[in-house]
Amino acid sequence: MIEILCNFVSSKHWHPPKKVVHELCCSALLPLIEAAFRSASLLEMAKEATLNQQYLKLTRVMATHKTLIPTLLELDPHYQPPQKDSVYNLLKNLKDLASIFLNCLNTADKDSLANQKLAEDIIETFKFLDNAIQTSADFEQTDEGEILDILSQPLEVKYRTLLKDLRFDYTTMKDTNGKFKHHYASSISTGTPPQNKMIRLAQELADMSTALPIEHTNSIFVRVDDTRVDVMQALIMGASGTPYGHGAFLYDIYFDDSYPNGPPKVNLTTTGQGKVR
Q1: Is the N-terminal amide bond of 260 cis, ω within 30° of 0?
Q2: Is 213:241 a contact under the CB 8 Å cutoff?
Q3: Coil, helix or strand for 69?
């Protein structure tokens, strides 16, 4: 059915009238696409890779029509069922997951990965839609008052909104001489990491990037070395109501070549210069 829709919408002889936008917003098609893109895990999406790739194709086809672009953005709240997230915002989140997944596999054999094509399709679809939105004369984007509105919110809302995109990122963990500034620097292998380790890390980091807690009473921030995804640091904010509450605890983490059969190596570096353990 999705393939039929793709063929119809992509027809050069069809130019959707504006009333089609209302009909689409009242139909079950948009909630169906949004539900498919709402998955927080590439692994789950890969289980239905063929179907999800059809949804991505349909999204790209719809974005070729200026009239249909508003259906992929935030809808008027009077439409039922109420929209939870727009197709655009859901694809933006998926694009970040797909980018992390592919970036982790720089040293692995990508050709052997069934979900590589899905990740690439997600990124391609987001870029296509984003470009279509930006070039649409009817689309206006404004950030006026957004920061002031955020700062007027309760603490828990401000914290989550301002810091949620900082939970996961890449950085360099090497000094100016190219040596790792890390507790496990002497253990980090110099050879090519095993493929099974890199594949597992790619899957887990992609999912972790949006799964880390981000509450003002309990949050975790992770940084991965931009050349070695098996070298990490994690900053854990102590949970409120515990002896660790309001503390910030930094851990050096290294996944050696025994992973995933063996556990990662973890060392607490927040020790007050060795005075506290």
Answers
A1: yes
A2: no
A3: helix
Please give the sequence-ordered ranges of beta strands (E in DSSP) within the chain, or none if there are none: 168-171, 214-215, 218-225, 231-237, 248-254, 265-268
> Whole-angstrom Cα distance, residue 106 to residue 212?
24
In the predicted model, what is the mean pLDDT of residues 87-109?
79
Cα distances (angstroms) measured from residue 255 to each of 79, 87, 107, 179:
48, 36, 15, 18
- Write the pLDDT tens digit of every residue in 117-162: 888 999 999 999 999 998 875 555 445 556 778 888 888 989 998 8
d(CA 136, CA 125): 16
Contacts of 232 (CB under 8 A, 6+ apart): 222, 223, 224, 225, 252, 253, 254, 255
208's enclosing H/E stretch is: helix 195-211
Among 213, 214, 197, which Cα is nearest to 262's?
Answer: 197
pTM above 0.70, yes or no: no
For the CA atoms of 277, 267, 220, 222, the dihedral, rounded to the nearest 10 degrees, stands at: 150
Reduce the DSSP state of residue 251 to 3 states and report it.
Answer: strand
**Amino acid at site 124:** E
* Among candidate residues 132, 103, 133, the one with its CA nearest the CA of residue 120: 103
Q: Name the amino acid, one letter, at 189.
A: S
Q: Which residues contact 258 (CB under 8 A, 6 or more apart)?
A: none
